[in-house]
């Protein structure tokens, strides 16, 4: 995290004015090298663990908040702050291994944007990441309930089936995907741990749904009948809204930054599953890598 820690660096424009996100990552962090040699099993495991930790934070902080106060505003504030801090830490910690997606919508968007060049997640990667994320989310909800003495698997009764909540999920997910891929295209994705977490914290408050914006997390939260839960009957409409939002977010990225140019094989910064070239050394020189 050279940039975040204040390491000296030349302006990004001196290296590349508008980096293609596919040269950098399949998810969040340009400022972290995604390990080119990490086997798929390890990357998928990291995605599962990261998503589990994220849901544990979301569900656990919600339970703690409701046990400490009856004020719904204070409960939401506590829940959102814990999520902001937890998400930022997880992205910073795990981005160098898997890209720190923790979100099937982000994984699918990364695959879609790079499917023509083969330097983003492959369908095989997607097939490993998404189940790992969903399983991790369920495990995270169960772990949070266990820590607070709740039934380990108790489906939520919190109905979230109103149409305005679905529209909120479209907006929340569109904004998230726009931010992630916009940062990469603008050469600022090294700021993702701070900015992505900050966006989620804001979206807790400006969306009526409190910004789930994540299909895996949505499924996981159906397994807890607590503050953060969602009734199983409400899950499918949320998932549909989130996928629509991801498509809208990619559209906004294209409108704002244009379509990414084709990437030459020898220019790829961190090809997925391939070998690293000399580009990371140039970025390290500029302080963009630790």
The CATH class: Mainly Alpha
CATH fold annotation: Glycerol uptake facilitator protein
Overall shape: globular
Which stretches of 5+ consecutive residues score pLDDT under 50? Answer: 1-27, 29-33, 265-290
**Helical fraction:** 55-70%
Number of domains: 1
Oligomer: single chain
The overall pLDDT, averaged over residues, is: 83
Topology:
Elements: H1 40-68, H2 72-98, H3 104-114, H4 123-147, H5 163-185, H6 192-206, H7 215-221, H8 232-257, H9 279-285
Summarize the structure.
By secondary structure, this protein is mostly helical. It contains 9 helices and no strands.
How is this structure best described in words?
By secondary structure, this protein is an all-alpha fold. The chain has one domain (36-285): Glycerol uptake facilitator protein, CATH 1.20.1080. Helices cover 59% and strands 0% of the residues. The chain has nine helices and no strands. The chain has helices at residues 40-68, 72-98, 104-114, 123-147, 163-185, 192-206, 215-221, 232-257, 279-285. α3 (104-114) runs parallel beside α8 and α5 runs parallel beside α8. The termini are close together. 52% of the residues are buried. Residues 1-27, 29-33 and 265-290 have low confidence and may be disordered.
């Amino acid at each position: 995290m050279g940039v975040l820690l204040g390491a000296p660096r030349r302006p990004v424009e001196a290296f590349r004015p508008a980096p293609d996100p596919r040269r950098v990552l399949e998810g969040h962090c340009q400022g972290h090298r995604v390990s080119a040699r990490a086997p798929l099993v390890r990357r998928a495991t990291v995605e599962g663990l990261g998503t589990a930790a994220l849901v544990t934070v979301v569900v656990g902080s919600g339970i703690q908040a409701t046990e400490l106060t009856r004020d719904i505003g204070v409960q939401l504030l506590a829940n959102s702050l814990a999520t902001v801090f937890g998400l930022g830490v997880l992205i910073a910690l795990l981005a160098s291994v898997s890209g720190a997606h923790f979100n099937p919508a982000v994984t699918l968007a990364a695959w879609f944007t790079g499917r023509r060049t083969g330097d983003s997640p492959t369908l095989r990667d997607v097939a490993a990441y998404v189940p790992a994320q969903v399983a991790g989310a369920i495990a995270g909800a169960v772990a949070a309930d266990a820590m607070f003495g709740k039934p380990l698997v108790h489906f939520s009764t919190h109905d979230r089936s109103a149409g305005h909540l679905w529209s909120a999920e479209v907006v929340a997910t569109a904004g998230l995907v726009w931010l992630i891929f916009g940062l990469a295209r603008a050469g600022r994705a090294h700021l993702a741990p701070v900015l992505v977490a900050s966006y989620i914290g804001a979206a807790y408050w400006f969306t009526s749904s409190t910004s789930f914006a994540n299909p895996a997390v949505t499924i996981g939260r159906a397994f807890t009948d607590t503050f953060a839960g969602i009734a199983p009957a409400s899950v499918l409409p949320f998932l549909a809204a989130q996928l629509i939002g991801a498509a809208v977010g990619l559209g906004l990225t294209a409108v704002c930054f244009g379509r990414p140019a084709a990437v030459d094989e020898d220019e790829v910064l961190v090809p997925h599953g391939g070998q690293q070239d000399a580009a990371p050394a140039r970025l390290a020189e500029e302080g963009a890598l630790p």
